[in-house]
Write a structure and sequence with these properties.
Strand order of the largest sheet: 1-2-3
Order of helices and strands: EEEEEEEE
Distance between the termini: 40 Å
Shape: globular
Number of strands: 8
Strand content: 25-35%
Length: 101
């Protein structure tokens, strides 16, 4: 089965490890500004992701801001991490990353 979801095409597979895989182009966004009026921009792009090319190939990395005033920045590169990151450990993309503590 496959259908168009809010953030792109959604496909379901019979393999348990691929329970729900999204394919396409997505924005990684963070809600940064309280949108009080129609047309206000509340969401800010942090980066982009495509299943073909990986992260930051359309929108470059930007800081992710946290409520305590700290920032996380994943780095200056794009694509897929090499080697792939492991679950539970942050990935720094090609250097320049900070704020993973």
């Amino acid at each position: 089965m496959n259908f168009l979801g809010v953030s792109g095409n959604v496909q379901f597979f019979d393999q348990i490890e691929l329970d729900c895989e999204r394919k396409g182009t997505f924005s990684v966004r963070q809600y940064m500004n309280l949108a009080l009026n129609k047309g206000d921009k509340g969401w800010e792009d942090s980066t982009s992701f495509t299943t073909a090319d990986g992260f930051a190939t359309i929108v470059e990395w930007k800081n992710i801001s946290w409520p305590d005033g700290t920032f996380t920045y994943f780095g200056t590169g794009s694509g897929f991490p090499n080697p792939p990151n492991q679950p539970g450990s942050p990935t720094e993309y090609f250097g320049g990353g900070y704020g993973f503590d």
